[in-house]
Amino acid sequence: MKTNKILRIFLVFIICFSSCKDDESQDSIAPGILNIENIIPTNGGGVISYSLPDDSDILFVRAEYTNTLGDDVYRVSSSHNNSIEIDGLNQNYPIQVKLFVVDENENVSDPVEIEFTPLPSFIFLVQESISITPDLGGVKLEWENIAEKTVYVHLHITNGNDVETRIISSNLLSESVFVRGLESVEMIFSTKVEDFDGNITELEEKATLTPLFEEMIDKSTWTLISQLSVNGNAWEGETTAFWDDVVDTAETNSDNSYFIIWRDENGGTLDWPLDIVMDLNKNVRVHRFKVWQRAFWYGGPTGVPYYYQEENMRSFDLYASNNTIDWTLLGQFDIGDPSDESGNIGQDFIDAAANGHDFDLDGVSDAFRYLKFSITSNYGSDTYVHGSEITLWGLDNLD
Fold it and tell me: What is the pLDDT along the chain (399 residues), one digit of tens a residue?
């Protein structure tokens, strides 16, 4: 027993001694400094190229500087790179940057200080490239963003004494955005452009335009072409409820304004796509539309709408025709699934569903008489598909 006790004490001593030796041998030597090879100014920043010191345990390079707004910021680049980008600047005078090498033991090299003058920020290039043209019920904005960095375009719409502001975000090289819901009266359109770091251009007047006249397509003339359509008349559902101008609500089942596609009434299976074909009995041109899901939840939580649940429609294609034989695809659309990993859905998505899901076509369609709503998926059910309402906007009752 005494021998075992002495052995345990000896082992503890050996472990402690080894640990102390490891602590003492831990690298505390700072890595060497960077060797700067090239500096290329960019629009709103610059790219600094370098070669790393010979140290084998380099983790990253860190650049520290004060941006145009006076904020102290930093950027890092891993040891696998030989350059680092400085961005978020809006100035025509030199920027001072300190560059450090950091190793795996958090040792930091002496700084290397460099200085360069960035090119004018890309937000000015975006601002300069913005064009605004009239469209049905609004305007279309287009711009180029060579940096492909996030910009926020602030659109100011002046209608008499009223000023409305809409903010559009994008990081695409070429952007095209429709702004809808405007009267067909002369308005002044101005823009300013902001980057992610808060740099912003001056407000600039871009155009004085009159949005083209837009109207909601009247649905009172629409009829169902049943021989080309799925049966949506199960239980209290009616296919024609899809265009009866009554949107289903979550609070009561008294409206019951939706279609119900039941597999048992359609050959025993949901054979995608599920087509609903309508004769508008007139010619129209459309450029945008809205759809609503079924809202009332039978047997569900009290007061909670059925939005995004398994039996509601999710994705669909829209087609137009003048003879019900030759169909033109107007677009493919998806309401999307906003649920998180736990299946929870944010209130903002619930509110959006209550207001209807808005979709734009790529442009204004040619005139057509027949519309095919082709459902391509729901939220998981293999038994039912529900939908409440569709509304179109464009030019109605064309000759």
Answer: 444 444 454 444 444 444 444 444 567 899 999 999 999 999 999 999 999 999 989 999 999 999 999 999 999 999 999 999 999 999 999 999 999 999 999 999 999 999 999 999 999 999 999 999 998 999 999 999 999 999 999 999 999 999 999 999 999 999 999 898 899 999 999 999 999 999 999 999 999 999 999 999 999 999 999 999 999 999 999 999 999 999 999 988 888 899 999 999 999 999 999 999 999 999 999 999 999 999 999 988 878 999 999 999 999 999 999 999 999 999 999 999 999 988 899 999 999 999 999 999 988 899 999 999 999 999 999 999 999 999 999 999 998
Measured CA distances, 111 to 79, 100, 103 (Å): 16, 5, 14
Is the CATH code 2.70.70.10 the one for domain 122-212?
A: no
What's the length of the chain?
399
Q: Which two structure tokens, joined as six digits, stand for 379?
A: 């939220």
Helical residues (DSSP H) of the chain, grouped into ranges: 2-25, 122-129, 347-355
Calculate the dihedral angle through the C-alpha atoms of 372, 373, 377, 381, rounding to the nearest 10 degrees: -110
Pick the CATH number of 35-116 from 3.30.70.2190, 3.90.800.10, 3.60.20.10, 2.60.40.10: 2.60.40.10
Whole-number Å distance between alpha carbons of 110 and 96: 16
3-state secondary structure of 290: strand
Q: Return the structure tokens found at 157.
A: 């719409």
Q: Which residues pair with 371 in a beta bridge?
A: 278, 320
CB contact at 8 A, 57 and 76: no
CB 226 within 8 A of CB 240: no
194 alpha carbon, distance to own chain's centre? 18
Same topology for domains 122-212 and 216-398, yes or no? no
Q: What is the CATH architecture of 216-398? A: Sandwich (2.60)
Domain range annotation of the chain:
35-116, 122-212, 216-398
CA 94 to each of CA 44, 67, 68, 86, 98: distance values in angstroms, whole numbers, following the listed order? 12, 11, 10, 13, 13
pTM of the predicted model, to two decimals? 0.67
